Amino acid sequence: MPLPDPRNKYKPCRGVKLENRQWPNNTITKAPRWLSTDLRDGNQSLPDPMNTDEKKAYFHKLVDIGYKEIEVAFPSASQIDFDFTRYAVENAPADVAIQCLTPCREELIRRTVDSLKGAKRAIVHLYLATSPLFRDVVFNMDEEACMQLAVRSTKLVRELTKDNKDAKDTYWQFEFSPETFSDTPIEFALKICEAVKKVWEPSTENPIIFNLPATVEMGTPNIYADQIEWFLKNVTEREKICLSLHTHNDRGCGVAATELGLLAGADRVEGCLFGNGERTGNVDLVTLGLNLYTQGIDPGVDFSDMDSLVDLTEKYNKIPVHPRAPYGGSLVVCAFSGSHQDAIKKGFARRSAGIERDGGNGNNLHWQIPYLPLDPSDIGRTYEAVIRVNSQSGKGGAAWIILRHLELDLPRGLQVAFSKIVQTEAEFKGRELKSEELIALFEKHYFLGEDSKHAYDLEDYNVTADGKATRLFKGTMTVGGKTVELQGTGNGPISSFLNAAETQFNYPMEVQSYKEHSLGKGSKVKAVCYLEIASKKNGKDIIEWGVGIHEDVSQASMRAAVSVLNRLASDD
Ligand SMILES: CC(=O)SCCNC(=O)CCNC(=O)[C@H](O)C(C)(C)COP(=O)(O)OP(=O)(O)OC[C@H]1O[C@@H](n2cnc3c(N)ncnc32)[C@H](O)[C@@H]1OP(=O)(O)O
Ligand SMILES: CC(C)C(=O)C(=O)O
């Protein structure tokens, strides 16, 4: 039973008092510094943490796609984490900083710094929970004791790193996280950071990283943004600070909180690919990066081979990426429903025309396709994957697949006719129809396949002028294996054939529309004809479509007419 009054159990998150807040008026105009914590915060939350080989593969992929700051481990926790840090130190490119997390405990700090020895660039990340709940429940420490511990620990890190003459070859950076910042009285968060800064003595060139984590997401994202703006307004020596965000997703707003935090002035973001991490996860770096990209901002990380990132995380985290995960999910660049497919198909047609006019590849043409905020090809997905067909689909979806695979640009009426066939098949099978199945259905239905089963075949014919405006068709057909001679007249080859067929086989046939286009290019070019015929079947007026393909355009149209005849003779 839900509680009749949850107020007695849960209290709302209180924001900070922020005068003249600025962040709602800001826009994000450049990518922040990114830190991937997949190998630390992500890894520590896995039921089966990665082994060393898995961490290595993951690390190299993070480097390959462009992350320059990577938190690789909690080296004081285990020999595996220590050894992996050594591997990362020895194998990181010169421009990649290796970050490690340590609590405020002397032996653990020493071990952490040991693991980073010899690194070209290293970030020692010290954390200490600062919220009243944690100080009280976890540490039994008052604010003063908490501050003294942070100060003592920072002094030790300083002594072991930037003040250590034996460690001068490393470019040391220092990060301090008042853990559970999101639930810490803001004045105390500022006070402890100021005390830590005073000890570390950062410079403008090498700023201290203050990472202000929403360790647990406590309130709406605007509250987090207010906290960040308040902190930045009140902290001293802003120019010597890199303000870092580290959000979790307990309320499902990690991305929003991070984006609002950036609007509030933050410089750096920590997160994991596809939002792996404690509980509901860290903020998703893929979403954040591609959110920037789709605003025309280079994220500085390469997401163009999305499937390889999905494979990586699924293999090593052993957690599937949700099919609806932003950008990376297998279903997010797919449209099943008819009106979406129709709009997307029209959008692509408009874009192709624009590209042709522009004479380029479309990279300088603004992306404007209904329902698709991102060009699937920018993340390595194919257009073919965009439109998928099931019983919810309309004419546009199947027509798109036929266009992409067979290059047949079906007239609207034929799209409608074929979509009914598709609908029946999808309902019958009770599932999505794959592209190959749709193509087979189309070829079978309009008798285009080499081995299609059909009643009528045109063996031979000729059309001659019979008087001024009249054409005479004479030909031989096989009907169910038997040879039949037929002849008819009309004002052109098709009408004279239809007249012959009507006389011979008793199908009234009147042309409603005719369309042709070329297929392929160069010496392999063919003609495609689409013929719409009004006829009668079992006493009822009906419309049938025929499709014919041939190197010769008049043969193609004749084939289209035979295709109609076969449709009239078929049972379906
Ligand atoms: C929000 C975050 O993600 S923080 C990072 C969390 N990551 C991890 O904890 C992964 C690695 N951790 C570990 O392997 C272990 O917890 C270790 C090695 C750090 C410590 O192990 P143990 O000494 O056995 O302690 P244990 O894990 O049982 O409890 C944590 C202890 O650290 C203390 N602690 C927690 N955070 C901090 C901190 N930032 N600084 C100093 N001490 C801390 C706790 O109060 C507790 O102390 P207690 O034993 O005196 O009560
Ligand atoms: C150590 C800190 C930054 C952390 O992981 C968190 O608060 O979630």
UniProtKB/TrEMBL annotation:
SUPFAM superfamilies reported for this sequence: 2-isopropylmalate synthase LeuA, allosteric (dimerisation) domain, Aldolase, post-HMGL domain-like
InterPro entries: 2-isopropylmalate_synth_dimer, AIPM/Hcit_synth_CS, Aldolase_TIM, IPM_Synthase, LeuA-like_post-cat, LeuA_allosteric_dom_sf, LeuA_N_DRE-TIM, PYR_CT
GO biological processes: L-leucine biosynthetic process
Catalytic reaction annotation: 3-methyl-2-oxobutanoate + acetyl-CoA + H2O = (2S)-2-isopropylmalate + CoA + H(+)
Pathway: Amino-acid biosynthesis; L-leucine biosynthesis; L-leucine from 3-methyl-2-oxobutanoate: step 1/4
Every Pyruvate carboxyltransferase domain range: 32-307
Designated name of the protein: 2-isopropylmalate synthase
